[in-house]
Specification:
Two copies of one chain form a homodimer. Chain A is of the alpha/beta class. The first copy, chain A, has two domains: about 160 residues, Aspartate Aminotransferase, domain 1 (Alpha-Beta Complex), CATH 3.90.1150; about 250 residues, 3-Layer(aba) Sandwich (Aspartate Aminotransferase, domain 2). In chain A, about 40% of the residues lie in helices and about 15% in strands. Chain A is built from 13 helices and 13 strands. In chain A, the strands form three sheets. An eight-stranded mixed β-sheet of chain A has the order 2-9-8-7-6-3-4-5, sandwiched between helices. The longest helix of chain A has 30 residues. At the A-B interface, α4, α5 and α10 of A face α4, α5 and α10 of B.
Chain lengths: ~425, ~425
């Protein structure tokens, strides 16, 4: 097979015809596959069913987790998440079932009122701004979009956000923060280098109350014997004299049950005091029974790591299958696409030739394979290069994933040839 | 024993001396009792332990409640709460563990952006206003206080808020809503009469987007064979042509576990659509596993009523003991206090002679009995008559409750005599 880029128009037309025939055959199978959702598969959820047998509700200090109280979370849960996030227990708030909900709350709080280190509420700017390393997590970007922030795209590199761009943009006082998924980023699976973390912590920002939304969503979701490691953002901020800058989040959604787990955050003591004081009117307490249940089940960081190994045994073959089929299905025809090869997390990115992502996703959909909308990982849903496709290999069974990836490769090829033929 | 009001100063002084001696004896027992908290007692929580044995997570329509999705709630949970609230399933959102959290969210939404029927966000008023039938639930009032509303006190009558006052106040466009605990109100235990409900539904309000925050917190918490009944606020509003006025709430916090239950709301379809659309950026989904667990356990309205009978068997003797000891301890000395006798709910009110509530609570505290701060049930924590004391009989064991009530009676007597002697 020849390089699409060095083919002439006739060769491209013939190759396109061949692929369209193949596409029609695949489409005729009546596929109904979904690679769009970053959801654990049912067999992953089954790994935690024993947790539901835990009937012990009494906290280690005697607190009855069934009753009201302890807004900050059960002491053992604070200690557990302190271990997860690399903070002290008193720097942790343990919340409900959603870390996104905690992040939303903090953006809303900053927007409405500001933080302890704010000169004014963020909404005193007609259009406050937020940095969005892209491609990134659409639900992050949407929170800030909902509150009327201008979303500023920062290119995502294999080492994290392009720090030259970040350092330039934070000279604007209206820039109030940055969204980060520092380990196994969504969707690339990139992890922030030590230099990136240190520069984020140390940089001078025009806004005195600049916040790093540090969503360590995949902090324990390794898929390799040589997992990525990141520095501790709270510690780095503290060392740089900016300890109120870091707001760190994690959840057990992809450890136990996505809809019924426990989320937590960590920040400086000053931030935690301020946040708890403001949370007081909002809720009496989170589900402490579920907090106790989770800590009893996972025990500690070793218990958590052992549990995540079980997830890895389910997920690693899926990621490997996708990577090997991409290699097989997209090679030998020139550099029509590249893709990321994460050591963990829930996603990988396929980057098509410029201008081919939307068309690829459309072709897939029309043949019965759902992918995340092209552009979804960019602010306002627009990928300026129309190149990124987010692949979520976790939910479908392996054989469906294989079928879907094979179809994807055919669609990438078709879209590329169509684009090249347009130009000729 | 003589009427305190017809005693002369010397008689009052002698009676006070006698009571102070009694008080010192009681205080010397080193009591450590708490009648301040509207919490279920541990034996009430034990009634629901079998719920934790339910391992079935699959919804009736096949939804895996463990995973992401279904922000509006599990279908069976929506139907269950539709029965509870008197609405259609599609008019219900099932939330997390806190109805207060849902109410907070809706006040925040109205404040920030308004509702579907709003001409503008409520925060376009420098000082929007909210009606607070008082005495009422302090955590309601605090939500609106936190968002900068001016809290307008409406006298609470045995039939609900004084509707003459309400109808006068809602002629002000800045008045955006009213807090209501319509059945067994906190703290009086009063229930809204049919006339009150109909007038609330039908009244003309200057604000087109006036909202009734209808917190049916004690909707199934009866303590009598002849329970109070209230009209359905959503239906009454609809009949009056104001169907977007009612936002109704309930929770299972005092049915199963206060910290780990399920809350829900109901409103017009237009409101529900608007609210769900706005909730989308905030959270992926609530804890559906807990929703399924609760519906499997309680089954339906009959199952719920049967479960609440078990609570009644624990609570009714406590309420009866308090009422009988109040009768015993506060009679024979003139009308120094009156108290409410609820058919359900979690509280009752003692009304002291004007100006005696704070002193009574202080005397109790100094002798080791914690009561809710006097005034807590009024906007800004100030009872203009300094008369209301909220009694929460549910949490302490019966014998502690009896001791605490006996002490309370002595303290009411002392405070009354002190006040009368002041005047002479």
């Amino acid at each position: 097979m020849a390089d699409y880029f060095s083919m002439d128009a006739q060769q491209r037309g013939e190759e396109l015809e061949r692929l369209r025939k193949l596409y029609r055959e695949l489409a005729a199978e009546g596929l109904k596959l979904d690679m769009s959702r970053g959801k654990p598969a049912p067999d992953q959820l089954d790994l935690s069913m024993d947790m539901l047998k835990i009937m012990d509700y009494r906290g280690e200090t005697g607190i009855d987790s069934r009753n009201y109280g302890s807004l900050e979370g059960m002491p053992e849960a604070r200690r557990f998440f302190a271990g997860f996030l690399g903070a002290k227990a008193e720097e942790v708030i343990v919340g409900g079932n959603s870390s996104l909900n905690m992040m939303y709350y903090l953006i809303e709080l900053g927007w409405r009122q500001g933080f302890a280190d704010s000169a004014a509420a963020w909404n005193t700017y007609a259009k406050p701004k937020f940095l969005c390393p892209s491609p990134g997590y659409d639900r992050h970007f949407r929170v800030t979009e909902y509150f009327g922030f201008e979303l500023l795209t920062v290119p995502m590199l294999p080492t994290g956000p392009d720090m030259d761009v970040v350092e330039r943009l934070v000279c604007d006082e209206a820039v109030k923060g940055i969204w980060c998924v520092p380990l196994y980023s969504n969707p690339d699976g990139y992890s922030y280098s030590d230099e990136t973390v240190r520069r984020l912590a140390a940089m001078e920002t025009a806004a005195p109350d600049f916040k790093i939304m540090w969503d360590n969503a995949y902090g324990v979701h390794h898929l390799s014997d040589h997992p990525d490691r990141i520095l501790n953002m709270l510690e780095e901020c503290r060392a740089a004299g900016h300890e109120d800058r870091a707001l760190m989040f994690c959840s057990l959604s992809k450890v136990t049950f996505p809809g019924a787990s426990v989320a937590a955050m960590a920040a400086s003591r000053r931030n935690i005091d301020y946040i708890l004081k403001n949370m007081f009117p909002m809720i009496i307490s989170y589900d402490k029974l579920n907090q106790v249940r989770h800590v009893r089940f996972l025990k500690d960081m070793d218990g958590l790591a052992a549990h995540m190994e079980k997830h890895r045994r389910i997920l690693e073959p899926k990621f490997k299958a996708v990577l090997s089929l991409l290699e097989e299905g997209l090679s030998g025809c020139g550099e029509i696409a590249r893709w990321t090869k994460p050591n963990g997390g829930y996603f990988l990115s396929v980057y098509t030739h410029e201008g081919c992502a939307k068309r690829t996703v459309q072709l897939c959909r029309e043949a019965g394979v759902a992918l995340t909308d092209a552009g979804a990982a960019y602010p306002y849903g627009v990928d300026p290069c129309d190149s990124n496709i987010r692949i979520a290999p976790t939910f479908p069974p392996l054989h469906e994933l294989e079928e879907a990836t094979r179809l994807l490769c055919v669609c990438v090829r078709i879209a590329t040839l169509e684009k090249l033929l347009e130009k000729t």
